[in-house]
Amino acid sequence: MAPLTDLYHLTMAYGHWRAGRHRAPAAAELFFRRGPFRGSFALGAGLAEGLRCLRAFRFSAADVAYLRSVLPSTTEDAFFDYLATLDASEVTLSAVPEGSVVFARVPFLQVKGPLLVVQLLETTLLCLVSYASLVATNAARFRLLAGPDMKLMEMGLRRAQGPDGALSASKYSYIGGFDYTSNVLAGKLYGIPVRGTIAHSFIMSFTSLEEVQPRELPPLAGGEPVDLVALAESWLGQVCELLQTPPEKANRGELAAFVSYAIAFPQDFQGLLDTYCVRRSGLPNFCAVALALHQLGYRAIGVRLDSGDLAQQSKEIRQVLRACGAHFQVPWFETILIAVSNDISEQSLEEFSREGSEIDMIGVGTNLVTCPLQPSLGCVYKVGVAALCPAWLVEVNGSPCLKLTEDEEKVTIPGTKTMYRLYDAAGHPFMDLMALEEEPSPSTGQELAVRVLGQLREASKVVPTAVEPLHRTYFRDGQVRGATLRMVALESSLELTRWGLRLGGQHPTWTWSCISILQVCELLPSLPEVAMTERLHHLLTELLQASQ
Amino acid sequence: MAPLTDLYHLTMAYGHWRAGRHRAPAAAELFFRRGPFRGSFALGAGLAEGLRCLRAFRFSAADVAYLRSVLPSTTEDAFFDYLATLDASEVTLSAVPEGSVVFARVPFLQVKGPLLVVQLLETTLLCLVSYASLVATNAARFRLLAGPDMKLMEMGLRRAQGPDGALSASKYSYIGGFDYTSNVLAGKLYGIPVRGTIAHSFIMSFTSLEEVQPRELPPLAGGEPVDLVALAESWLGQVCELLQTPPEKANRGELAAFVSYAIAFPQDFQGLLDTYCVRRSGLPNFCAVALALHQLGYRAIGVRLDSGDLAQQSKEIRQVLRACGAHFQVPWFETILIAVSNDISEQSLEEFSREGSEIDMIGVGTNLVTCPLQPSLGCVYKVGVAALCPAWLVEVNGSPCLKLTEDEEKVTIPGTKTMYRLYDAAGHPFMDLMALEEEPSPSTGQELAVRVLGQLREASKVVPTAVEPLHRTYFRDGQVRGATLRMVALESSLELTRWGLRLGGQHPTWTWSCISILQVCELLPSLPEVAMTERLHHLLTELLQASQ
């Protein structure tokens, strides 16, 4: 993992080493300056990968040989010898637990150790954490919009940045609140439930009922196999009569594909309805096969739509399923799952909600995994060396001659910090507080003066009912500590509910019809707050004045 | 690699297997329907990964055990036994060479073999090829806009979808025409030249000249080491006098960082100019150190800017370098490389070109690797089984009841095809022609009737001076064939020049000032053309009529 970094870290490492500063105690904080997707929050994720990277951090002999070939020829041999001895055993990493809600400006990862190693970890950790957090956040936004009862499936394998991007997408979508993935390897590696339906190509590979092979299926309860082709055909006549659609418009290849699939998966029959006309072909054919299966004791499980006005069609489909269920006395028929896909975005979910729908399950691919609204989280990793430079971590982020006080957002908050999450009497978090490491922890039940970011000029008073350190130590003395490499699916959504989080931007703050575990549903305009202690604020002010 | 697929391919595979169709000869074509980024072309890439996947295509015992646990319990044991025996030894893959120009609708990968395997490869190949092609295309667009002489460096490691996404970005940016990557691992694995400069954090880790350690540097030609701190300080006075900037505004920490870096890399000294004020600090400090180095026989190599108006500043910097060079009689000073970074996009490159600049090297990260203008290529993979369904590969792409002739773009072109690239007398390609596999190859020098896509109603006549099959066979009988796994950097750009390709969309069709190997510079409005033979067109027409 060690060579997974930008070259300039190695040239700078040599600079530090030559200057004898390579073992200076340093600390780094990883954070983002603005919430992604114009929202206020992100889910911090990628911690497990970060820990794996720390454990494996080492330059092999081959790595060192390669570095010799690319660093300037004036680089001293002893530096390469030193690189070959490096590991992360002197590094301590603390972080928010995987999948936690984090806000802009609050470090969600802290790294302490010798300057050279802390510096070398910058790009690697940014690479491992940024996309993980971005896609987890994106997934959480879909979850918030879809509501707690909707089944959400990630299906972005073919659109991600290669296998690893796709696996990350599956994993962190699950952490962000999705239920399933289509990616078999992600299922195998991470234990995420996998789901799949059927593709247009399968349906189009059949043109007539003669192709169905085998044609027979025994009833669920046992007994003589029945010709399912003939049975489905006879049901098709009845369904078409009920629906008043011409039987000759029901595509025979599609019926053949449905029957063939039903014989292969009698207890898991699903139909993809839109290869041909949904109303006159896909739906009658599906109902005919599902009713034939029912006659043999089996239940179909679902349908999928992949084009057109999905919300409107889902309502029409539900109507037909109800009508069939009532007419043919198959009560479960109306509960058949309706799944949709086709370039689903946040906007689609808003439309489904606005128009009403009968959709039970949504598959999201491209707009989940590529995060087109903001394809990178823009995390930064700020390294400081307290002993060498008391003002470390205050910086101007590149804008030359900027008056530091002009743009609060661009001022990095100084010092090595401890972060606390403050809770109100109802047990809901209401503030993340940054304090200097040497400050005592805030006391519960006592009034505390804080400076809220964005309103730094005036102190506010808060009284936390409970105070929790935001970070835990996950890596120390070369060992991973804590058992939080597990998947935390849906806990994130639970956490989101306890904050009253907005999606931000152009999203209407509409109210959900369901009252549920996701009380965020109400989408109140209460922006969560981030604050710093008076002492930290004092240090910041001093440093800003000193740098004028 | 085999489990890197969507679950529905495995359920459908079972469907085919149950129906005894799993070994039916099938063929698939991989293509995109529209050029990405509103342009007309893409570079086909990812072939090497695709071939690796074919070679390794196998379900391990653990894979099969996992599949048993997720497929419906009614799935027959014999199917899993069959899966355990599968490999890609009966698959033949042909494709355009890695990095070739490809157009919408023209398959750039063809896969033939038993239906079940061909089907199972769909998502895997899409995953491996789509992002590779997208980022190679994106890189080529940057190259076209930047011109042939600009040095382009990929630096997207921290913004990509994890390590693998980042490595793909480095590799395929290089194939698309970039010169360098910042990613050390990509350099090591793929032999891409790596480059790096210096970061703000390094500069900010110094606050005073006392911190410089060691302070001395021997002259290049040998001799007594000289105190470079003192020497740089004395040069700073002279530079500030020449530039008429107050010496006290030159940040001492920055000067210390520059001197320290120069002592570490006397032959490779680079300065990052915008940690503090470029004009009053970064530039005087850099010039002072570079002149001190010059006095000892060394040449500084470059500066970098990471904020502000990059084009304007580059011109001011060049002026200062010229003035110093003239005044202090250091002629090479004016040729010092000016590198820029900071959220560079296609628009930035257009602005640089419009405003004029003195930029020599550009680092591109986020906008290269995340492809925000279009974060996925949207490739499709169409499988057909000729024996089962003569109309295979004609499809409606999901829009139900669509009249097939309404939207030419959505009609997939039928049949197993051979693609030819036609060249004019000047040796420039002017058309990609799709023919049925059984048709004879077009003859050179003979008039040929073709149907150009988008103008199918009328035949056009063309006379190719040379005809080349577009595809080569890269995999057959379980073996990779052909030696085209090598990197093809810049060949792609050369190929782009032979076509007269537009970037499309909102890009102005301005003319480059340079006449060079990249004659595409002229950016003529000649959209490359894609056509089909009369026989293929006849088949398409027949099938469209039959499906009415």
UniProtKB/TrEMBL annotation, chains A, B:
Pfam families, per the entry: NAPRTase_C (PF17956), NAPRTase_N (PF17767)
GO molecular function: metal ion binding; nicotinate phosphoribosyltransferase activity; transferase activity
GO terms, biological process: NAD+ biosynthetic process via the salvage pathway
Keyword field: Ligase, Magnesium, Manganese, Metal-binding, Phosphoprotein, Pyridine nucleotide biosynthesis, Transferase
Transmembrane portions of the chain: none
Pathway(s) per entry: Cofactor biosynthesis; NAD(+) biosynthesis; nicotinate D-ribonucleotide from nicotinate: step 1/1
E.C. number: 6.3.4.21
GO cellular component entries: cytosol
Role according to the record: Catalyzes the first step in the biosynthesis of NAD from nicotinic acid, the ATP-dependent synthesis of beta-nicotinate D-ribonucleotide from nicotinate and 5-phospho-D-ribose 1-phosphate. Helps prevent cellular oxidative stress via its role in NAD biosynthesis.
Family: Belongs to the NAPRTase family.
Designated name of the protein: Nicotinate phosphoribosyltransferase
Organism in which the protein naturally occurs: Mycteria americana
